[in-house]
Amino acid sequence: MSASIVLSKILPLELSASSVSMESHGSLDVAWAPGDIFPVINWLRNQNVLILGGDVIRRRENLIDYCGDNWYFESSQATEKLDEQVDAAADKAESYIRNYVAKNGPSFLFSLVVE
């Protein structure tokens, strides 16, 4: 299932309004700037939606493209409750994005893959 289809159906308008469509790149993904994605991650956490990972998209002036960087969350379903997995996955997404921006600057967008 495509993450953007799920996210576009479940996110409140104020969160989806700040997203950037990747449709021009042949993808149904949507992405957010670093300052906009943390409320999305928090909302997903509060809704108990598991973030499986995400992609980094380079943004230069009016051009955007996937740069090949990404992260993923490997759950240990046998030993963790869903809410623990959701928290761990959200923490990992936030940490990855913060570290990425600290190292590479804010000129990137981030998409999320959810379950």
Descriptive overview:
- The chain is globular, with a radius of gyration of 14 Å.
- The chain has a five-stranded antiparallel β-sheet with strand order 1-2-5-3-4, covered by helices on one side.
- The protein is of the alpha+beta class and about 120 residues long.
- Helix content is about 40%, strand content about 30%.
- The mean pLDDT is about 85.
What tags apply to this protein structure?
alpha+beta; five-stranded antiparallel β-sheet; 5 strands; 42% helix; globular
CATH class: Alpha Beta
Instruction: Please state the structural category.
Output: alpha+beta
What's the main sheet like?
A: 5 strands, antiparallel
Whole-number tally of structural domains: 1
Distance between the termini: 8 Å
Total helices: the number is 4
Radius of gyration, rounded?
A: 14 Å
Q: What's the average pLDDT?
A: 87
The portion of residues forming beta strands comes to 25-35%
Q: What is the total tally of β strands? A: 5
Q: Might you state the CATH topology name?
A: Ribulose 1,5 Bisphosphate Carboxylase/Oxygenase
Order of adjacent strands in the largest pleated sheet:
1-2-5-3-4
Helix share, percent: 40-55%
Order of helices and strands: HHEEHEEHE
Shape: globular
Would you identify the regions where 5 or more consecutive residues have pLDDT less than 50? none
Summarize the structure.
By secondary structure, the chain is of the alpha+beta class.
Topology:
Layout: H1 3-10, H2 13-16, E1 20-21, E2 30-32, H3 34-46, E3 51-60, E4 63-72, H4 82-104, E5 108-114
Antiparallel strand pairs: 1-2, 2-5, 3-4, 3-5
